[in-house]
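Our consortium's second objective concerns turning raw sequence data into structural hypotheses that experimental partners can test. To show how far this objective has progressed, the report includes one record in full. It was chosen at random from the queue rather than selected for favorable results. The single chain below, 78 residues long, was entered without modification.
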Amino acid sequence: MESPALEGLTRREREIAEHAFRGETNGDIAEALVISPHTVAKHLEHVYGKLSIHGRRDLLRLCDTRGPAAAGPLSGKS
């Protein structure tokens, strides 16, 4: 089941947020998804804005509040 806080994110925003949640850098995410680090940064800005958070630390806190499933994908799907 998907966290209600993540419902407003696009598929790509969820994908990038998942990578960020795993501790990957913008460069790592960009390389994995074959996009520029600038594009990653813009997507993360949108994620933070939609979730009313300020950065990766807040993203981790938000995901940690999801309970035991927090270790899995943010989308709730494999």
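The partners drew two points from this record. The domain at 4-63 is CATH 1.10.10.10 (Arc Repressor Mutant, subunit A). The radius of gyration is 12 Å. Both points have been shared with the crystallography group to help prioritize constructs.
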